């Protein structure tokens, strides 16, 4: 899954108030009537969890005889925090026409699939909601959800379901973490968001999915910012300074890179000097920290994405490796957040494509060239297309780093009216293999039409969203499509979460 300007942005949510404006007649618009709460909302029910929904919630069925919902027996109830096979007491939070939402408040009978979470913050932290589910069962449920989406949404059945690829490790596997600031003074917090209150940050003591040295860096940054009297940025008021601490780790080098993102501030101000001092202190204290970057973001949102770099101390980038391919990973670069997971994903993709030395490959949504460079050793030529100019520059630099003269990268918007890559360089219009690794929104309709028209011998779709994969598969391999869905393979790129990564191979029909 990608997280970049070409479509895979972060998941922060801007908040604000909408002012009431007078209508043309001079009168105030009336507010929309408030929704009347259902009598069942707020009540606790005993529910047996049967399965796991696409978003990670447990699925139960409303029992018979529930007062106020006598006609709703059998209605699906999505229970946050509940595992298949368990019986829970759940509080109903919302009732819709055809389903209800609830939160598990007590486990009456534990699930046989449950395990002890390896993190002290589990239950408080919202980052790993499935950490209490056995790893092999996480992957099995994700595979089931992918196949269900293909059948239910796309109305297609894959010719083959290849063995799912487990995560190489269930702990310390992430190479990037985004920690948020909140509060001020001695109450300044630096950590992750709470599961029960996504707007509240808790102080992180350790993180089971990131290398242990990361927690020590977080502790030192938090303490230094408290001592300096720096306050967290509040996007509702526009006040405050500190926004995010982004840590990256290279498995190849076993080194770290730190980026502190703040609201804009004068370069000669006391806070700016305090941040420079913090960077110098961290570099002196942590031998594995190769660089410290101070960046700014002015937009009133919750994204951990820099708009401008104002200070860079030490090294500006890490170097990561997948087999013998090297990638330069700067503070703002896109790279899969699990190095071992990326290797498993790219290896599975290479196996699926079965490239020949003379093959020409087209890589759509190529980002920083991760897939293109990995496949370049097995093909004659590779062309990567990407909308983000910074990512294209990273891809070109990575090609130079690897001496990959058979790789080219071009800036191209693959959405909207620009979705059809008509003006491809000579030799790429009829590529032997096409890789599509789109954002969560999936492929644009125009791009799907182009694929159905050109029908490459092999089309590999890398998906981070089973629902949009299923929709696109229906257009590619359903009635009127030019392909067959030959094979699918689930890849557990994000353990302990509901995110399901999938590889799908399409081959021309007939």
TrEMBL record:
Keywords: Methyltransferase, S-adenosyl-L-methionine, Transferase. Residues 38-106 form the TRAM domain. Coiled coil: none annotated. GO terms for molecular function: rRNA (uridine-C5-)-methyltransferase activity. S-adenosyl-L-methionine binds at residues 336, 365, 386, 437. InterPro entries: MeTrfase_TrmA_AS, NA-bd_OB-fold, SAM-dependent_MTases_sf, TRAM_dom, U5_MeTrfase_fam. Residues 1-38 are annotated as: Disordered. Residues 1-21 have a biased composition (Basic residues). The active site is at residue 464. CDD domains: AdoMet_MTases. Signal peptide: none annotated. PANTHER family: RNA M5U METHYLTRANSFERASE, TRNA (URACIL(54)-C(5))-METHYLTRANSFERASE. This is 23S rRNA (Uracil1939-C5)-methyltransferase. The lineage of its organism: Bacteria, Pseudomonadati, Thermodesulfobacteriota, Desulfovibrionia, Desulfovibrionales.
């Amino acid at each position: 899954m990608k997280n970049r300007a070409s479509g895979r942005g972060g998941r922060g949510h801007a908040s604000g108030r909408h002012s009431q404006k007078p209508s043309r007649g001079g009168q105030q618009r009336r507010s929309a009537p408030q929704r009347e709460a259902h009598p069942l909302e707020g009540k606790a029910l005993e529910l047996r969890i049967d399965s796991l929904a696409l978003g990670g919630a447990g699925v139960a069925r409303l029992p018979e005889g529930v007062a106020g919902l006598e006609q709703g027996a059998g209605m699906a109830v999505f229970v946050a925090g509940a595992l298949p096979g368990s019986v829970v007491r759940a509080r109903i939070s919302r009732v819709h026409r055809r389903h209800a939402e609830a939160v598990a408040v007590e486990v009456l009978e534990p699930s046989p699939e449950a395990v002890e979470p390896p993190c002290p913050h589990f239950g408080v932290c919202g980052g790993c909601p499935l950490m209490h589910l056995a790893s092999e069962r996480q992957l099995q449920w994700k595979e089931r959800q992918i196949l269900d989406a293909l059948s239910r949404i796309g109305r297609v059945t894959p010719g083959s379901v290849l063995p799912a690829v487990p995560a190489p490790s269930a702990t310390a596997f992430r190479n990037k973490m985004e920690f948020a600031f909140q509060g001020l003074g001695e109450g300044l917090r630096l950590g992750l968001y709470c599961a029960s209150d996504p707007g509240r940050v808790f102080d992180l003591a350790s993180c089971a999915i990131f290398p242990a040295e990361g927690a020590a860096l977080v502790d030192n940054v938090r303490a230094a910012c408290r001592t300096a009297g720096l306050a967290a940025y509040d996007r509702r008021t526009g006040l405050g300074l500190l926004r995010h601490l982004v840590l990256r780790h290279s498995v190849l080098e076993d080194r770290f890179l730190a980026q502190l993102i703040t609201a804009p501030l004068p370069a000669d101000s006391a806070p700016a000097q305090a941040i420079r001092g913090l960077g110098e202190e961290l570099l002196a204290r942590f031998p594995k920290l190769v660089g410290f970057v101070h960046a700014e973001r002015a937009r009133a949102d919750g994204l951990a994405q820099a708009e401008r770099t104002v200070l860079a101390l030490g090294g500006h980038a890490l170097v990561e490796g997948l087999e013998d391919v090297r990638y330069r990973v700067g503070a703002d670069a896109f790279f899969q957040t699990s190095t071992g997971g990326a290797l498993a994903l790219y290896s599975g993709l290479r196996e699926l494509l079965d490239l020949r030395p003379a093959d020409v490959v087209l890589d759509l949504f190529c980002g920083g060239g991760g897939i293109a460079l990995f496949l370049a050793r097995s093909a004659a030529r590779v062309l990567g297309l990407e909308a983000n100019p910074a990512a294209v520059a990273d891809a070109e630099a990575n090609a130079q780093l690897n001496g990959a003269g058979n790789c080219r990268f071009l800036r191209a918007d693959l959405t909207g009216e620009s979705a059809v890559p008509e003006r491809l360089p000579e030799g790429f219009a009829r590529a032997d293999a096409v890789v599509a690794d789109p954002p969560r929104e999936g492929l644009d309709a125009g791009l799907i039409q182009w694929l159905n028209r050109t029908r490459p011998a092999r089309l590999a779709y890398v998906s981070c969203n089973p629902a949009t994969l299923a929709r696109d598969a229906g257009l590619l391999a359903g009635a009127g499509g030019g392909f067959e869905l030959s094979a699918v393979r689930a890849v557990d790129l994000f353990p302990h979460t509901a995110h399901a990564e999938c590889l799908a191979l399409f081959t021309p029909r007939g």
